[in-house]
Specification:
mainly alpha, about 75% helix, about 0% strand
Length: about 170
C-alpha cells in the first residue's frame, strides 16, 4: 500500500470506516510485528505492542501527515523501545523461537538468521529490519529513527557485513 493509498484509508478510518481499518491492519500487521518482535525479542510482548499500535491508529488516525507509513512504523518502534526501557529485561534465545514465521523446513535457516540478528547492536538490527521487513528506503529509515541518512546507510552496511561473517561461521 502506497503512502497515498494509506492516507486515503486513514481518512476513511477517521470517519468510522471499519473496512478501511481492516485493510490497513491486514496490509501492515506482519511487517510491523516483525519490527516490534526484533526490538523486544518476545513474541507475546510484540503481539501486545502490535495491538497497542493499531488501537492508537483506530482511535487517532494521523490524517494530515505526508508519510503515514513511516509514522506508523515510528509509533511501533517507539512503543517497543519504551517497553524495553520500562521492563529492562533480557530474553533467552529459547523464548525467541516462537517469533519465527517460516515453514518447518526453513526453520533451522531462519533460526541461524535470528541468532545472527540478535548479535547485532540494537540500532543496526532496527535499520536492517526496517529496510528488509518494512520495505523502507534509507531516507525513510533515517526519519523513523531520527538519525542522519548517512548513519542509517552506514549502520545497514556494517550490519550486513557482520551478518555475513556470522552466517559463514555457522
Amino acid at each position: 500500500m502506497t503512502d497515498k493509498e494509506l492516507q486515503s484509508k486513514l481518512y476513511h478510518i477517521a470517519n468510522g470506516d471499519i473496512s478501511a481499518f481492516e485493510e490497513v491492519y491486514n496490509d501492515m500487521k506482519t511487517p510491523i510485528m516483525t519490527v516490534i518482535a526484533r526490538i523486544v525479542q518476545n513474541r507475546e510482548t510484540a503481539e501486545d505492542i502490535l495491538q497497542e499500535v493499531f488501537i492508537k491508529l483506530y482511535y487517532s488516525p494521523p490524517v494530515d501527515i505526508s508519510k503515514p507509513r513511516a509514522y506508523i512504523f515510528k509509533t511501533a518502534s517507539n512503543l517497543a523501545v519504551d517497553y524495553l526501557r520500562k521492563s529492562k529485561q533480557t530474553v533467552s534465545l529459547e523464548d525467541c523461537e516462537g517469533m519465527l514465521y517460516a515453514p518447518e523446513s526453513d526453520r533451522s535457516e531462519k533460526l541461524d538468521i535470528e541468532r545472527a540478528l540478535e548479535k547485532l547492536e540494537d540500532g543496526e538490527r532496527q535499520v536492517v529490519t526496517l529496510h528488509i521487513n518494512g520495505g523502507f528506503k534509507f531516507r525513510e529509515i533515517a526519519e523513523i529513527l531520527d538519525m542522519p541518512l548517512g548513519t542509517a546507510v552506514w549502520r545497514y552496511q556494517k550490519a550486513v557485513k557482520r551478518l555475513r561473517e556470522l552466517l559463514q561461521a555457522v
